[in-house]
Amino acid sequence: MFRGTWGLGVAAAALVMSGAAAMAADIGPMDAEPPMAAPVANYDWFLHVGPAGVFFSESADVSAGGAAVAGSDAKIDNDLAVTLDIGYYVTPDISLSLTLANAPLAVVNGAGSLSGLGALGKLNYLPPVLAVQYHFPEFYHVRPYIGAGVNYTMFFNEKDAALTNFKVDNAFGAVLQAGVDVMLSEQLGLFVDVKHVWLSTDATGVLGATPVKADVTLDPTIVTAGLTYRF
Question: pLDDT, tens digit, for every residue of 72-125?
Fold first, then answer.
């Protein structure tokens, strides 16, 4: 399971961004305009679509029957999702975006003193993100951006495992974002995007006849790469 995934995600994105920038430099100017004069203002909308790795930095404080369980923890399998960003340029440099995805299946496993229980439960989740971005000036078809926003993760289709009546509460989280677009033509390009979400929730269930509650920190880092289209 990944730890410190925010740094890992940024490092991976930096490697891809440097390779993409080199590729864009080989493309050369798309017209007679200077490289800094990119006609971004001509395009009001953009789409980002591609696969995303979801890497959790999880932890849990578990109580059973109202008493804390010493050494208890939880682990969640990392996931692969497909995401779609729909963005609108409010100004040539500032955009709003909504990130949508399919609903991956997460497996919650006992850890620490609960490791012998194996899977505690399974569930699907939807993690839409609403964010605002600032896009730096385009240089040789490369345009980095940073952003911030809010996430609302919805958990559903819970399945019992070691715990019965397994439930997880929906939750809000704060988001920071960084990425880059590398344009291959005026409208089509590539992108790399890294989002980190500060997300905590409550999970409940029953172990045997004992009610169990967990305060769970998820804090996923989402690393996405794919195609950019602006129109």
Answer: 999 998 999 999 999 999 999 999 999 999 999 999 999 999 999 999 999 999
Two structure tokens written together for 152: 């609302």
Count of domains observed in the chain: 1
- Tell me whether residue 215 is in a domain: yes
Give SS3 for 145. Answer: strand
CATH of the domain at 94: 2.40.160.20
Neighbours of 66 (CB within 10 A): 8
DSSP code of residue 59: E
Contact 146, 178 (CB under 8 A): yes
Q: Is residue 39, in this structure, part of any structural domain at all?
A: no
- Asked whether the beta carbons of 135 and 93 are under 8 A apart, the reply is yes
Query: Which residues form the domain of 218?
Result: 5-30+44-230
CA distance 151 to 215: 18
Q: Which helix (H) or strand (E) holds 21?
A: helix 5-27
CA proximity to 83, closest of 64, 62, 97, 67: 97
Question: How open is the CA angle 87-93-96, to the nearest 5 degrees?
Answer: 25
List the one residue out of 64, 81, 72 whose CA is nearest residue 108: 72
The secondary element (H helix, E strand) that includes residue 22 is: helix 5-27
Say if 154 falls within a structural domain. yes
- In this prediction the pTM is 0.79
Distance CA 92, CA 21 (A): 21
Whether residue 99 lies inside any domain: the answer is yes
